User: Which sequence fits this backbone?
């Protein structure tokens, strides 16, 4: 079984969750974690180079399917599940239990000094603020172009592309003033960052769910068992805690996941 992930902490953790649960059921696993962005993982799954990875509904709708943003979480999920199955031959699980929406964040000191509470509040300061974003955010339909259009922003300083794993470091070291992260990032809590309200409701829902090849599930029943176990059982607090252990405490993702799965009792008799 080939398990993949995108190239940021949460994705590597989710890939390890899938891999370790499969291995606990005696399924040999090849890990292709930290593989790359959305399009790399999607193409690999289509090509049969991956069997399963975790995707986000809003990302699938706007970045992969190139459809218009919708803010109805159930409608977005139903749409991507339908189109993936019909047109791409791929299947979605039910959502895992958390929505990893984008989070526009600042240090609390800077937000308070400038009186910024919502994304709309950035507009009076658009001539001076330095924005840092992940590289993929430049290209996505639900990314930078749509964001500045929705909020009528004219950023005079060009946004800086930063690797997602370094984005909060750049903010805390004063290299940028505002970053686009994710709601489940553990470092938001660590640094006590201010997350700006999306007051124009720009971002769609980003419910996490596993995407997989149906032929693999038919060949290996353990995959269906693992996926069913995860459905609805990973909430935002749990995901943020896992992310923080890796990003803040410097623990290895595999170690963090193993501890988490043992605590949940998901590894079976041999884990006790």
Assistant:
């Amino acid at each position: 079984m080939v398990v993949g992930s995108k190239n940021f902490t949460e994705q590597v953790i989710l890939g390890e969750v899938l891999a370790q649960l499969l291995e606990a059921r005696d399924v040999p696993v090849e890990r292709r974690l930290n593989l790359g962005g959305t399009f790399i993982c999607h193409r690999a799954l289509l090509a049969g180079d991956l069997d399963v990875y975790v995707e986000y509904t809003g990302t699938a709708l706007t970045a992969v399917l190139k459809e218009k943003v919708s803010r109805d979480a159930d409608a977005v999920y139903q749409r991507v599940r339908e189109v993936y199955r019909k047109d791409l031959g791929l299947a979605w699980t039910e959502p895992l239990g958390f929505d990893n929406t984008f989070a526009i964040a600042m240090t609390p000191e800077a937000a308070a000094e400038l009186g910024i509470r919502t994304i709309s509040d950035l507009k009076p300061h658009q001539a001076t603020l330095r924005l840092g974003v992940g590289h993929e955010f430049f290209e996505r339909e639900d990314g930078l172009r749509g964001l500045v259009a929705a909020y009528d922003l004219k950023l005079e300083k060009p946004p800086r592309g930063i690797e997602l794993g370094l984005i909060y470091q750049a903010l805390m070291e004063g290299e940028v003033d505002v970053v686009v992260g994710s709601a489940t990032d553990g470092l938001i809590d660590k640094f006590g960052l201010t997350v700006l309200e999306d007051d124009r409701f720009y971002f769609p829902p980003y419910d996490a769910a596993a995407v997989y090849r149906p032929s693999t599930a038919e060949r290996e029943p353990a995959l269906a068992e693992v996926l069913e176990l995860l459905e609805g059982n990973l909430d935002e607090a749990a995901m943020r805690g896992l992310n923080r252990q890796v990003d803040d405490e410097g623990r290895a993702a595999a170690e963090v996941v193993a501890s988490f799965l043992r605590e949940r009792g998901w590894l079976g008799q041999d884990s006790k």
